[in-house]
Structures are given as structure tokens and as C-alpha cells.
Amino acid sequence: MHRLTDKLTVMLLSVTAFGFSGMDGESFALPVLGLLAAVASTSLVWLFSGTRTADWVILLSAFACLPFPMLFCAAPTLLYDSLSIKKPWLAIPALLALTRAGDFTAQQLLIIAVGTTVTFIFCLRVGSLEASNEKLAALRDDVEAKNLELKDKNVRLADAADNEIHLATLRERNRIAREIHDNVGHMLTRSLLQAGALMVINKDETLRQPLSDLKDTLNTAMTSIRESVHDLHDESVDLDTAVHECIRSVGDRFTVTYENDSEGEIPVKIRLCFIAVIKEGVSNAVKHSDGDTIHILVRQHPAFYQLTVEDNGSCPADRDLTGSGGIGLQNMRDRAEAVGGMITITPSPEGFRIFMTVRV
Predict the structure, then answer these.
(1) Please, how many CA atoms are within 13 Å of residue 313, restricted to the half-sphere of its CB?
(2) Contacts of 279 by beta carbon, 8 Å cutoff, 6+ apart
(3) DSSP annotation of 182
(4) pLDDT tens digits, residue range 260-291?
(5) How confident is the model at residue 297, as a pLDDT?
(6) Which residues partner with 352 through β-bridges?
(7) Which residue ranges make up each domain of the chain?
């Protein structure tokens, strides 16, 4: 907006310079044609701004001032166009028109001088404004980048805090499960033994049925406690924690990578199955593989969960894995079948691969 206002002001000065030309009938047409040529020139510069065409238009207009001195009245506009594209040297040829200074009136020369001065002032002001805008834009971008970085750090800190809370919750569940098992479970067991002993030594028939009911109640309570402790322990098992503990047990012989892109909590049965298969797969790699890398992948698809455990150790392709293939491999098949999954064990000279899928 500043550039448009400034240019209109400069053009108005050029028009005024053209207006001080002779006003008789014969010379009136020449200033009008000069003014139209100047307007056409600056319009072309504006239209082709940023291209070589604009440069050529300014340069040709400047040289045209020598054979047609009247065009020198548009010198402020010509200078403004060259300064706006940061090529002021393109307007220098227009100074050749001053060799015919006698063709201009004193008023025209004064207006051209004033217009030139105003043009320099406008360009300096606009340049300062643009520099300030560039600094503000750079500062805004820097602040935005720092805000994004801070937001990312906050998200990571929140995730870390959530993870710590999650792990603390799991540890507390394990502690409660142990407390119930060690204290309440033992007391119920002792109560069952005492009830059984009372039933053996009791001679009163009227107490036989109440003692039997008491023993049944204690048995029911014991079963309920066992199931609760079992469920509480299973819920407290974290897949990532279990896998990382398994990885730490490998030592320095293997480079182990682990990826888990599942969203949300994997169901307990599937989670426990995956942990067992991963432990068995890593254990087999440590015992039998001659490779040096193990890759573990847990992935959630819309309709099923996927587990892959593979190493780069060589394995004879003719090794029979269709049968039992050893107790460990059979256990993996049994666990996969127990959760309704499918498991494929593929040996090859390039590595050993365990691939398992379980429907959601």
C-alpha cells in the first residue's frame, strides 16, 4: 500500500512537469504523448516486475529521453521504478536529456528536481519499512519455531510423566498382588487346614454341616482371591517393560531393536502371549543363532495384531520345523493357538523368523 501511494505521488509530480510545457495548439500534443508513453512504461514495469522485461523497459525509456527530451519530465517515475527493483543504474541514461536543458522550462526542471528528491526519500522510507518487516518476520518465525520446540518438549515431558505414572501404577499393582498372596492367601490356607482338622476331630453331628459350609466358604474365598491376584498381576504386566528386560538379558553379543506401534493397551491374553513368544524367540537366538542382530516388531492393524521376531543368523533351510521342532517352538505354537492366533516359523540361510498374528 505504501508503494502504491508513493508511486502515485511521484507520477503526479511527473504529470505536473508535463503540464508546464507550452500550451499552444502545436506543442500540446507532444506533452500528452510523452505523458502517455511514461504511463505505459511504468505500467509495463509494474506488470513485468521481477523479470528482465522490466529492466529493458526502464533502460529503453531512459535512452529515449535523449531523442525525445520531453520524456525527461517522467524522470522521477523512471527513477522510482529503477529503485524499486534495486537497479538505479538503469535510469542513468535519462540524464543525457540534460544536454538539451534548453528545451525545458525552469518550472519543469524544478519539479523534476523536487520529484527526484521525493523519490529518493520515498525509497529510503520504504526500504526501511521493508527491512523492519523482514526483521519482524524473522523474529516471528524464530518465536514460532521456539514455541513449536517448547510444545514438543512439553509433549515429551507429559508422555514421560504419564509413562512414569503408568509404571508406578503397575509396580503398585504387583505389590498389592504380592501382599494379598503372601498375607491373605496364607491366612485363608491356614483357615482351610484348621476347618478340615475340626471336621476330622468333630464328633458332634450338629456341627458337621456348619463346618462343611465353613470349609466351602473358605474354598470359595480362596479361589476368588487367587483369581483376583492372578488378574491383578496380569494387568500389571507391561509389554514394553517386559521386552526391554528381555533385551537387557541378551548382553553385548546381539544388537537388538524393538518397535511397538500399537495404539492403546493390548488385551492381557495377547500381551502375555507376545511376551512369552518374544522371550522364547530371543532365548533361541542366543542359544542357536550365529548372527549378531535381533529385530522385534509389534504392530497393530485394524483387524489383527502382528508380532515378528527375527535374527540374521544362518539356519539350514532343510531343518524340520513342521513337527514339534523342540519344546520351545511347540510351546510358542500352543500359546498362539490358545489366543486364537497363527504362528509361522521360517528358517533360512539369511536368518530365522517368527511371525505371529492374532485377530482383534
Answers:
(1) 21
(2) 246
(3) I
(4) 988 777 887 888 889 889 988 888 888 888 88
(5) 93
(6) 311, 347
(7) 2-131, 171-235, 239-359
Among 34, 84, 33, 76, which Cα is nearest to 55's?
84
- Assign 327 a pLDDT band (cuts: 50, 70, 90): confident
* 20, 105 contact by CB (below 8 A): yes
Beta carbons of 281 and 347 less than 8 angstroms apart: no
Q: What is the DSSP string of 313-355?
A: ----TT---SS--SHHHHHHHHHHHHTTEEEEEEEETTEEEEE
What the block records as the C-alpha cell of 165 is 505414572
- What are 157's three cell numbers? 515431558
- The string of pLDDT tens digits covering residues 64-121 is 887 887 778 888 888 888 887 788 888 888 877 777 777 777 787 888 788 888 888 8
Is residue 75 within 8 Å of 118, Cβ to Cβ?
no
Question: What are the CB-based long-range contacts (under 8 Å, 24+) for 22-27?
Answer: none
CATH classification number, 239-359, choose in 3.30.565.10, 3.40.50.720, 3.90.1150.10, 3.30.230.20: 3.30.565.10
pTM equals 0.43
CA distances from 43 to 11, 47, 162 (A): 11, 6, 63
List, in order, residues 6 or more apart from 20 with CB less than 8 Å away: 105, 107, 108, 111
Q: Which amino acid appears at position 59 of this protein?
A: L
Strand ranges across the sheet with 341-348: 255-260, 293-300, 304-311, 351-359, 341-348
How confident is residue 324, by pLDDT bands cut at 50, 70 and 90? very low
Question: How, if at all, do strands 255-260 and 341-348 pair?
Answer: unpaired
